[in-house]
C-alpha cells in the first residue's frame, strides 16, 4: 500500500507533515465533490432511462394495438406481434441495466462517500481538536515561571499527556488517510467495472435477441419484395379494369339481373328493393335484400343483423302484383305472412321472381344436406385426464422451471386465454399465464394471485413441486366448472378488456365455480375404493404422539456421549465458527443438558418417538388411506382440513374455491388447522400450498402447539426448514412449557436441532446488528437452501433420525 503521509513526519508534526495534510484534505474535499456530482448524474441518467422505458413501453403497446387491428392480415399481425415481443424484451433488458447501474454506481459510490469519507472527516475533526489542545499546552508550558514549581509540574504533566494523545490521534488520522487513498482507487474502479459489465451484458442480450430475430427479418424483407411486385401487378390490373368499366354503358344496370344458385358465398342474388310496411300507413322503405341459405332476408345497414322475410323458401310462392298503384311490384307469400316488394325496373322484377323460383326448386333438391352436415360435425372427441402422472414421471432433475412446469397437462398454454408457451405462473393457484394475463393477475392483489416469472425468477424446490402437483387442467376443472353451462367463451389473446372482466369473474367473484353442487364435482367424486370404505379420521397428534417427558429422559454413559455429539460435532464446530458464536452454542448446550434429568431409559424414550413417527409417512410417499373423504358431504373448511392430511391438492384447491377458510380450526380435534393436518400427513408440498394461500404459520391448537411444534415432534426436517423460512416463531411454548428446540433436544434429532439453533442465532445476530427484516447471513441462507433441496429432491437423506433411533 502506497503511503501518502509519512508516519514519522506525523510524530514530528513538522511543516512538511502539515503541508501534506493540507494537500490530502484538499484532495479529499475535491474527490467528495466529484463523487457527489457523479452520483447525481447517475441518478438523473437512471430517471431519464426509466422515463424512456415508460415511453418505449407505450410505443410497444401501440404496436400491439396495431397488430390487433391488423388481425385480418396474418403477415402484418404476426410480424408486428413478433416485433413488439422483441422490443418488450429490450425494455426488460434496459430495466435490468438501470437496476445494475443503480447498484454499481449510485449505491456503491454513495456508500463510499457516506461511510469512508465520513470516517475521514471525523478523524480530521479529532486531529484538529487535539492539535489545538497541544498548542495551548505548549504555550501554557512556555509561559509558566520557573519559581512556581507547582505550576511548572502541572504544565509539564498536561503537555506530556497532550502530546501522547496527539501522537495517538495523529497516527490514527494518518492511517485513515492512507487507507482512504488506497481504497478510493478500488472503490471507483470496482463500481465502474461493474457498470461496464452491465452494459456488456445488455448489449450481448440485445445482440442475441436480434440474432434470433435476424432470419425472420430477412425472410420478411424478401416477402416484402415479392409483395411490392404483386402490388404493382394488382395496380395494373385494377387500372385496366377501371378503364374497361368506364367504357361500359351505364344506362341500364344489368349487373343486378344476374343470379347464381351455386355461388360460393351462398348468396343467390342481392340488391335494393322497396318494401311495403305492414303498418296502417303502408309506407315504403328501401332495403338491401338478398337470397341466401334458402332464405329471403333484408337489412338497412351492413352492420345490422339481417331480418328474415321468409324462413324457408320451400314453403313460399312468388308472383307479380298488379293491384297496387306502384309499378314493378311482386309479392312473396308464405304460410304466415305476405310481403310486397318493388323493383326499379321490369327487368329487375322478372329477375327477382326468377331467382326466387329457382331458389325454391334448389331448396327442394338439397333437402337433408343440413342434417348430413350436422352428423359430420357430431363426431365425438376423446381425451385422457390421466396423463398427468405420466407427465410428472417424465420430469428430470436439472430441468428448468419452465420445462418442468410446462410438462404438466394444460400448462403449455395460458390458463385463462389459451396463448401458447406461457412464461409466467401464479404460485398460489398453480397455473401458468401469458404475460398479459399475468399483469391482470397482479392487479387482483397477492391475496388472490401471486405472480412469478418461470424464466427470470429463482424457484425454490418445494414451490416447483407445488406447481407440478396442480396445473391448468386441474384448476380449470374447479374454476371453470360452469363455464359451458353458462354459455361463456374464454377470451382470446389480445382482448385486454375481455380478459380483465373474465379473470376477475373467475378468481375474485368465482362465478364459474359450481357452488350449487358444492362438492359433487368431478374432482370430489374421484375417490379410491379405500377412501369410500373408510369410516374414521385420524385423531389429533397429541393423542397419539408423546415426546419424552423430563421424568423419562435419563441417559446412560453411551447415550450421553451420543447426545453430546449432537451439539458440538466437528462439522457443526466449523459451521458455528463462522458466526463466532461457539461460546453461545456451548452455553445453550449446557442449558439444554439441564432438560435431560433423571429417567428410566433413553432408549425407551427414543423408541416411543420412533413408534409415534411410524404412524406417519416420510415426505414424498403415498400410502393407502383409512380416512373417510366423502367430500361432497363436508363443510368447505372441513374438506380442506381433511384433504390437507390426505395430500389431495386438487381437493384442497376446490375447497378454497368454495370459500374454505385456510386457517379454519376444527373444534372437534383440539382446534387443529389444515396446516397442522398437512404436517401430520407428512407432505411438504401440501404445507407450501397452504402457506402460499395465506395459512398462518404460527396458529396453534388448543394445546398450544403450532405447525413447527408438530413437525419437530414428528421429525419432519423438511417441514421444519420450510416453517422457519416462512417466519415461524420458534420461541412459542406449548401447554407443557416446551418450545420446538427443547422438543428436538429431547428427541435427539440432530438435523432439526441444527436448523433451530442456526435460525435462533441468525435472529440474534440480526437483532444485534439492527438488520430487522433482512434475510440474514449468506451462509445461513445457503444451509437452509441445501436443506430445502434435500427435503424436496432427496428426502431419504433426512431420515437419519429414524435410522439412528432404531439403533438404540
From TrEMBL:
Keywords from the named record: ANK repeat, Cell membrane, Coiled coil, Endosome, GTPase activation, Membrane, Metal-binding, Repeat, Zinc, Zinc-finger
Membrane-related topology note: Peripheral membrane protein
Biased composition (Basic and acidic residues): 369-378
CDD domains per the UniProt record, alphabetical: BAR_ACAP2, PH_ACAP
InterPro entries in the cross-refs: ACAP1/2/3-like, AH/BAR_dom_sf, Ankyrin_rpt, Ankyrin_rpt-contain_sf, ARFGAP/RecO, ArfGAP_dom, ArfGAP_dom_sf, BAR_dom
Top-level taxon of the source organism: Eukaryota
Activity regulation statement: GAP activity stimulated by phosphatidylinositol 4,5-bisphosphate (PIP2) and phosphatidic acid.
Compartments where located: Cell membrane; Endosome membrane
Domain PH: 266-361
Any coiled-coil regions, as ranges: 117-147
Biased composition range(s): Polar residues: 379-388
Comment block on domains: The BAR domain mediates homodimerization, it can neither bind membrane nor impart curvature, but instead requires the neighboring PH domain to achieve these functions. PH domain binds phospholipids including phosphatidic acid, phosphatidylinositol 3-phosphate, phosphatidylinositol 3,5-bisphosphate (PIP2) and phosphatidylinositol 3,4,5-trisphosphate (PIP3). May mediate protein binding to PIP2 or PIP3 containing membranes.
Role according to the record: GTPase-activating protein for the ADP ribosylation factor family.
Protein name: Arf-GAP with coiled-coil, ANK repeat and PH domain-containing protein
Gene label: ACAP2
Amino acid at each position: 500500500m502506497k503511503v501518502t503521509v509519512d508516519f514519522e513526519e506525523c510524530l514530528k508534526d513538522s511543516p512538511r507533515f502539515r503541508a501534506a495534510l493540507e494537500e490530502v484534505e484538499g484532495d479529499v474535499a475535491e474527490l467528495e465533490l466529484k463523487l457527489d456530482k457523479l452520483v447525481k448524474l447517475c441518478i438523473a441518467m437512471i430517471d431519464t432511462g426509466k422515463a424512456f422505458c415508460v415511453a418505449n413501453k407505450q410505443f410497444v403497446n401501440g404496436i400491439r394495438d396495431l397488430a390487433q387491428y391488423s388481425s385480418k392480415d396474418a403477415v402484418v399481425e404476426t410480424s408486428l406481434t413478433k416485433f413488439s415481443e422483441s422490443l418488450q424484451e429490450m425494455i426488460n433488458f434496459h430495466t435490468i441495466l438501470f437496476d445494475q447501474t443503480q447498484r454499481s454506481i449510485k449505491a456503491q459510490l454513495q456508500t463510499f462517500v457516506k461511510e469512508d469519507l465520513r470516517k475521514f472527516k471525523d478523524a480530521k475533526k479529532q486531529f484538529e481538536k487535539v492539535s489545538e489542545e497541544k498548542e495551548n499546552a505548549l504555550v501554557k508550558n512556555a509561559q509558566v515561571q520557573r519559581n512556581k514549581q507547582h505550576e511548572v509540574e502541572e504544565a509539564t504533566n498536561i503537555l506530556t499527556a497532550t502530546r501522547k494523545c496527539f501522537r495517538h490521534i495523529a497516527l490514527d488520522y494518518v492511517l485513515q488517510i492512507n487507507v482512504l487513498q488506497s481504497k478510493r482507487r478500488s472503490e471507483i474502479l470496482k463500481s465502474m467495472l461493474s457498470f461496464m459489465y452491465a452494459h456488456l451484458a445488455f448489449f450481448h442480450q440485445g445482440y442475441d435477441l436480434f440474432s434470433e430475430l435476424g432470419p425472420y427479418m430477412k425472410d420478411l424483407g424478401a416477402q416484402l419484395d415479392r409483395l411490392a411486385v404483386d402490388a404493382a401487378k394488382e395496380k395494373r390490373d385494377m387500372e385496366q379494369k377501371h378503364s374497361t368499366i368506364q367504357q361500359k354503358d351505364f344506362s341500364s344496370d344489368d349487373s343486378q339481373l344476374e343470379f347464381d344458385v351455386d355461388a360460393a358465398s351462398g348468396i343467390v342474388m342481392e340488391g335494393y328493393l322497396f318494401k311495403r310496411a305492414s303498418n296502417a300507413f303502408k309506407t315504403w322503405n328501401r332495403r338491401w335484400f338478398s337470397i341466401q341459405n334458402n332464405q329471403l332476408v333484408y337489412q338497412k345497414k351492413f352492420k345490422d343483423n339481417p331480418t328474415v322475410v321468409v324462413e324457408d323458401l320451400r314453403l313460399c310462392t312468388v308472383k307479380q302484383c298488379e293491384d297496387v298503384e306502384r309499378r314493378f311490384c311482386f309479392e312473396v307469400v308464405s304460410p304466415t305472412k305476405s310481403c310486397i316488394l318493388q323493383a326499379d325496373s321490369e327487368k329487375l322484377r322478372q329477375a327477382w321472381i326468377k331467382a326466387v323460383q329457382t331458389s325454391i326448386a334448389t331448396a327442394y333438391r338439397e333437402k337433408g344436406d343440413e342434417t348430413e352436415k350436422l352428423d359430420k360435425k357430431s363426431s365425438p372427441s376423446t381425451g385422457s385426464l390421466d396423463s398427468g402422472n405420466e407427465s410428472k414421471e417424465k420430469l428430470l432433475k436439472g430441468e428448468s422451471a419452465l420445462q418442468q412446469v410446462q410438462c404438466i397437462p394444460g400448462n403449455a398454454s395460458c390458463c385463462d386465454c389459451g396463448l401458447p408457451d406461457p412464461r409466467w405462473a401464479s404460485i398460489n393457484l398453480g397455473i401458468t399465464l401469458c404475460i398479459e394475463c399475468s399483469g391482470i393477475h397482479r392487479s387482483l392483489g397477492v391475496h388472490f394471485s401471486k405472480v412469478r416469472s418461470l424464466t427470470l425468477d429463482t424457484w425454490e424446490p418445494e414451490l416447483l413441486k407445488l406447481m407440478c402437483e396442480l396445473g391448468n387442467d386441474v384448476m380449470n376443472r374447479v374454476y371453470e366448472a360452469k363455464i359451458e353451462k353458462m354459455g361463456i367463451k374464454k377470451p382470446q389473446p389480445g382482448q385486454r378488456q375481455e380478459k380483465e372482466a373474465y379473470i376477475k369473474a373467475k378468481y375474485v367473484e368465482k362465478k364459474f365455480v359450481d357452488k350449487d353442487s358444492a362438492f359433487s364435482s368431478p374432482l370430489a367424486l374421484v375417490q379410491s375404493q379405500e377412501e369410500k370404505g373408510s369410516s374414521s379420521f385420524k385423531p389429533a397428534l397429541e393423542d397419539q404422539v408423546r415426546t419424552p417427558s423430563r421424568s423419562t429422559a435419563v441417559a446412560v454413559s453411551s447415550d450421553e456421549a451420543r447426545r453430546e455429539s449432537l451439539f458440538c460435532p466437528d462439522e457443526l464446530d466449523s459451521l458455528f465458527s463462522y458466526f463466532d458464536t461457539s461460546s453461545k452454542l456451548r452455553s445453550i448446550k449446557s442449558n439444554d443438558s439441564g432438560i435431560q434429568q433423571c429417567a428410566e431409559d433413553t432408549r425407551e424414550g427414543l423408541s416411543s418417538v420412533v413408534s409415534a413417527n411410524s404412524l406417519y409417512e416420510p415426505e414424498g410417499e403415498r400410502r393407502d388411506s383409512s380416512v373417510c373423504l366423502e367430500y361432497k358431504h363436508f363443510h368447505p373448511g372441513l374438506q380442506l382440513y381433511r384433504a390437507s392430511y390426505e395430500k389431495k391438492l386438487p381437493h384442497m384447491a376446490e375447497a378454497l374455491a368454495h370459500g374454505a377458510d385456510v386457517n379454519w380450526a376444527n373444534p372437534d380435534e383440539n382446534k387443529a388447522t389444515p396446516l397442522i393436518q398437512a404436517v401430520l400427513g407428512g407432505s411438504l408440498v401440501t404445507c407450501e400450498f397452504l402457506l402460499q394461500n395465506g395459512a398462518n404459520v404460527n396458529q396453534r391448537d388448543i394445546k398450544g402447539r403450532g405447525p413447527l411444534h408438530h413437525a419437530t415432534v414428528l421429525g419432519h426436517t423438511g417441514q421444519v426448514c420450510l416453517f422457519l423460512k416462512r417466519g415461524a416463531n420458534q420461541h412459542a411454548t406449548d401447554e407443557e412449557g416446551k418450545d420446538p428446540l427443547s422438543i428436538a433436544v429431547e428427541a435427539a434429532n440432530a438435523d432439526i436441532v441444527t436448523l433451530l439453533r442456526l435460525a435462533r442465532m441468525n435472529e440474534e445476530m440480526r437483532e444485534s446488528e439492527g438488520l430487522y427484516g433482512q434475510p440474514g447471513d449468506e451462509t445461513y441462507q445457503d444451509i437452509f437452501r441445501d436443506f430445502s433441496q434435500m427435503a424436496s429432491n432427496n428426502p431419504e437423506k433426512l431420515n437419519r433420525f429414524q435410522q439412528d433411533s432404531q439403533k438404540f
